[in-house]
């Protein structure tokens, strides 16, 4: 028999392959928990969803058996069984400072006998001074989602390395201890993780400190979290068709370009629909996809310190909040403007004749006529353009931007 020929659905040795489990990409918090679970940092916990444990994993509806957890690039990291048990598959290999992500066992091999210092923010000169008499140290940079104070996870490692340069003998280890949204829980979990890393060696708690940062640390903080006027900014206009979003957005874009200190990308509703979102309809689902795409691009722009000006209708509150979350996670500032021109005025303008066609039933699911618009309650500026000049409306937005020190 030719062993190279397999009956479809059979391995070479005749076994029938079991179907691959569904894949799921966890949240950043869950990915951090997974890394600690697999490495033994959360011992005695070894799996997700143990009774009373904050280390939980939420799976999409309809997924209840074994699941393969993948990182955002699709690399399979672990299999998780229905009861939360974790079987590791691959260790994450990429990501900044990956070499500093050690397990408690690796830390034992390299640094047993040192004193351990949990670090969640940039170290000030007084804290460094206090640590300099403590002998050989391991600075545990607590980089998990939501834990670093005023810094990104990478920024915290860079700031801790800069501080270590001021100490006689300090190694830095990155520990992805994530916040679970409750101070008490976070504290208890932190103690558990740090105890696992120190394994009986001394733990040194940092005293509160409002002293200056050493120059090298301050430079890291400044680059990682620039002041508002240099931080990435997403100016997001929402409102009915014809309310004035594009008109105001274009004028503001010109003002920012005239100042010459920022790069600007425009993500106008109509333009996006001809490019990034070509082919999408105006169903609720497609509108949400459209806004999430705009939000994703805008968040990336803000991550690099640029200004993104978006002007889609964006009628759904939950989708707008998702965009806010994406942008804030990227370190950008999300500035929502509600162009609150009432339907009657938009319909009176009817620049493109769309309202008339929608009323005639020629355009289904038209916002304000046959599709809902959910008014935002979290807008920083609300502008009703009725009876006002374009300049007045633009000034309303610019004034608030200046007040919040987001533009000069
Ligand atoms: N059914 C329906 N409902 C609303 N709008 C419609 C519709 N069909 C076409 N148009 C035109 O498409 C523009 C809105 O696209 P957006 O991408 O901003 O909409 S959404 O945010 O995805 O809801 C909108 O442009 P603006 O006037 O710039 O808002 C309309 O000209
Ligand atoms: N104060 C104002 N601010 C903005 N647009 C105004 C104002 N007054 C009248 N308009 C007019 O209303 C229309 C708004 O269209 P547009 O900016 O394309 O709206 P949208 O992008 O929300 O669909 C334009 O023709 C604009 O000239």
TrEMBL record:
Keywords: ATP-binding, Kinase, Nucleotide-binding, Phosphoprotein, Transferase. Signal peptide: none annotated. It catalyses: adenosine 5'-phosphosulfate + ATP = 3'-phosphoadenylyl sulfate + ADP + H(+). Residues 231-384 form the APS kinase domain. It comes from the Bacteria. ATP binds at residues 239-246. The keyword rRNA-binding does not apply. InterPro entries: APS, APS_kinase_dom, P-loop_NTPase, Sulf_AdTrans/APS_kinase. Its EC number is 2.7.1.25. Residues 1-25 are annotated as: Disordered. GO terms for molecular function: adenylylsulfate kinase activity; ATP binding; sulfate adenylyltransferase (ATP) activity. One of its GO terms (biological process) is sulfate assimilation, phosphoadenylyl sulfate reduction by phosphoadenylyl-sulfate reductase (thioredoxin). It holds the Pfam family APS_kinase. GO terms for cellular component: cytoplasm. Pathway: Sulfur metabolism; hydrogen sulfide biosynthesis; sulfite from sulfate: step 2/3. Catalyzes the synthesis of activated sulfate. Belongs to the APS kinase family. This is Adenylyl-sulfate kinase. It comes from Nocardioides guangzhouensis. The gene is cysC.
